[in-house]
Write a structure and sequence with these properties.
Blueprint lengths: L18 H37 L7 H4 L5 H10 L9 H16 L5 H8 L8 H10 L3 H21 L6 H13 L1 H10 L1 H15 L9
Helix pairs in contact: 1-4, 1-7, 7-8, 8-9, 8-10, 9-10
Length: 216
């Protein structure tokens, strides 16, 4: 008996949302759109600020990572004009604006599920290619762009400092909150310091497996 080459399409009819759910969706719609737009603005401005640090070779100055400063004028300018003239500010202020405002407000670049995989007791180095793939595939284009720029910035700093002027592990510690979120990292550090150092060590290993294009 030959199988039919054609299959009947199966339609799934979803129940119509209740009146209450439709009303809630209607009420929440403007707030949802506002949050999405705000997140988009923060992500694109993060891109602009990171590129400014790279283009001005700010990564050669270790002080900007040790003492980030949040300038209230930058927050005010961004809120009012949705942009910032970074040429009027120091590198410490630009990095502080990225770390202490833009990325802190817009949330982590790398999903929590990936963080859990990295610190899992079942983790081993054979999972690194899959983890890197997940970081790029399971993310939107704006996050991927900022992740890529952060990778580049981190690699440039490694090359600049050559592990002499500053500890490589210290740099990883500075950048961990940028990748995984300030709040999530602080929570991990407070509740399970051992897992926090596990994350730092394993993330350091993962960076070594980045595609060559990530370091150009």
């Amino acid at each position: 008996v030959k199988e039919s080459r054609f299959h009947k399409a199966v339609r799934t009819i979803e129940p119509r949302p209740s009146f209450l759910k439709r009303i809630l969706k209607l009420i929440c719609s403007p707030f949802t759109k506002y949050r999405r737009r705000k997140r988009f603005l923060y992500r694109t401005e993060t891109t602009n600020a990171l590129l400014h640090l790279i283009n001005t070779h700010a990564y050669t100055n270790k002080q900007i990572f040790m003492h980030p400063v949040l300038n209230p004028d930058m927050k005010k300018s961004f809120k009012q004009f949705e942009s910032v003239d970074y040429s009027r500010h120091t590198s410490e202020e630009v990095f502080g604006f990225i770390k202490l405002h833009l990325m802190k407000s817009s949330g982590p670049l790398i999903k929590k599920q990936i963080l859990k995989k990295i610190i899992s007791p079942t983790y081993d180095k054979t999972q690194i290619p899959m983890i890197i793939k997940e970081i790029y595939v399971k993310n939107n284009i704006y996050n991927v762009r900022n992740i890529q720029i952060l990778f580049c910035l981190l690699i440039y700093m490694y090359r600049s400092f050559k592990y002499n002027a500053i500890s490589g592990m210290f740099l990883i510690g500075v950048f961990i909150p940028l990748f995984f979120g300030e709040e999530e990292t602080a929570k991990l550090k407070k509740n399970n310091s051992q897992n926090y150092f596990v994350l730092i060590n394993r993330w350091n290993d993962i960076l070594k497996y980045l595609p060559k294009g990530s370091t150009q």
